[in-house]
Write a structure and sequence with these properties.
The protein is an alpha/beta fold. It has two domains: 222 residues, Alpha-Beta Complex (Quinone Oxidoreductase, Chain A, domain 1), CATH 3.90.180.10; 162 residues, Rossmann fold (3-Layer(aba) Sandwich), CATH 3.40.50. The protein is 29% helix and 20% strand. The strands form four sheets. Strands 3, 4, 5, 8, 9, 16 and 17 form a seven-stranded mixed β-sheet that branches. A six-stranded parallel β-sheet has the order 12-11-10-13-14-15, with helices on both faces. β16, α14 and β17 form a beta-alpha-beta unit. The model has no long low-confidence stretch (mean pLDDT 94). This is Glutathione-dependent formaldehyde dehydrogenase. Belongs to the zinc-containing alcohol dehydrogenase family. Keywords: Metal-binding, Oxidoreductase, Zinc. Its cofactor is Zn(2+).
């Protein structure tokens, strides 16, 4: 089969690799009909995860049709059309039973790696390095899905791929991030980052009762999409974001703030230079410029939500502001399974059409081009869907 393989920093190639096979009775093989490039994939593309190996198949947002089932999977059928949550979950451990699906204790065969770094391991993830299991990803023609009786979500008739593809990650990620904001009716929410997750977070915040959403970015097409979703927008290259937020909230600050950027935030001035320099010499693994800003900007007693991905260690955090302002922080990889039925209802009720975020549709063979335009924000690119089997 054809698959998008990581070959080193800033290099991916579409290669012919062996087809996946059933290796456990709870496995399924899915023929992929749609997949996508995620902002989190860029962290791997940019070389920030040391546990990647040349030839690793990328991708954790994918869906398709079941073509083979393990003998223990009794609740799905060959031919079912399914989406695949990016978090791999067993369904029966302590954490899965508490709806904390991304913390599954049984799905990361390389848990020892994560434990050395974090103390405990999160769940396995598709296509996201050997730190989270070394599972082959879904930017391919086929994928093996472990724990398929739990992990595969059957799609009702009448919905297109593009309406449901983002159930795999960015829609529930944006929704959980908004839920983590503890939004009360009429609240003001400030969101740093208007990439795909930020766009879903904006719309989710309104669905959960926010009165105002203020979105912060620098890319014109992203800011316009945020405005189209009802947000007020700030270009951080044009204004002092902290001062602007004070002015827009009468000095109080936003009720909740969200870092939808994560470890590769673009800092300004000396702070930005400091983070890049520290990261370059491995004295800091992530660039937390946005997280610092969000903590300082949030009103007293407010909530900091962090869907942006961080992988290691950060420096110069304003813990004094965090503690003395009595803030609450909520974060984590998304518990995708928890939100699937809720989000399906939202789509079927007409509350949202998730396809709004798509700007590019490419054949799988053009994935290297897709990574480049997505990374460098060329051609007004916000979200790319890849179509295996489509002619280049």
């Amino acid at each position: 089969m054809k698959a998008v393989c990581w070959q080193g920093t800033n290099k991916v190639e579409v290669e012919t690799v062996p087809d996946p096979k059933i290796i456990n009775p709870r496995d399924a093989i899915v023929k992929i009909t749609s997949t996508a490039i995620c902002g989190s994939d860029l962290h791997l593309y940019d070389g920030f995860n040391p546990t990647m190996k040349p030839g690793d198949i990328l991708g954790h947002e994918f869906m398709g049709e079941i073509v083979e089932l393990g003998s223990a999977v009794k609740n799905k059928q060959v031919g079912d059309r399914v989406v695949v949550p990016f978090t791999i979950s067993c369904g029966s451990c302590f954490f899965c039973q508490k709806d904390l699906w991304s913390l599954c204790d049984n799905s990361n065969p390389n848990a020892w790696m994560a434990e050395k770094l974090m103390g405990h391991s999160p769940s396995g993830l598709f296509g996201y390095s050997h730190l989270t299991g070394g599972y082959a990803g879904g930017q391919a023609e086929y994928a093996r899905v472990p724990f398929a009786d739990v992990g595969l979500f059957k799609i009702p008739d009448g919905l297109t791929d593009e309406q449901v593809l983002f159930f795999t990650d960015i829609f529930p990620t944006g929704y959980m991030a908004a839920e983590n904001c503890n939004i009360q009716p009429g609240d003001t929410v400030a969101i740093w980052g208007c990439g795909p997750v930020g766009q879903f977070a904006i719309r989710s915040a309104f669905m959960l009762g926010a009165g105002r959403v203020i979105a912060i970015d620098r890319v014109p097409e992203r800011l316009q999409m945020a405005k189209d979703g009802g947000a007020e927008v700030l270009n951080y290259e044009s204004v002092d974001v902290g001062e602007a937020l004070k002015e827009m909230t009468g000095g109080l600050g936003p009720d909740s703030v969200m870092d939808a950027v994560g470890m590769e935030a673009h800092g300004m001035g000396l702070e930005g230079f400091y983070d890049k320099a520290m990261q370059a010499v491995r004295m800091e693994t992530d660039r937390p410029n946005v997280l610092r800003q969000a903590i300082v900007a949030c009103r007293k007693g407010g909530t900091v939500s962090v869907p942006g991905v961080y992988t290691g260690f950060v420096d110069k955090m304003p813990m004094g502001a965090f503690m003395n302002k009595g803030l609450t922080m909520k974060t984590g990889q998304t518990h995708v399974h928890k939100y699937l039925h809720t989000l399906l209802d939202r789509v079927q009720n007409g509350d949202i059409d998730p396809s709004f975020v798509i700007t590019h549709r490419l054949p799988l063979e053009q994935a290297p081009h897709g990574y480049e335009i997505f990374k460098h924000k060329k051609d007004n690119c916000i979200k790319i869907v890849l179509k295996p089997g489509q002619a280049a």
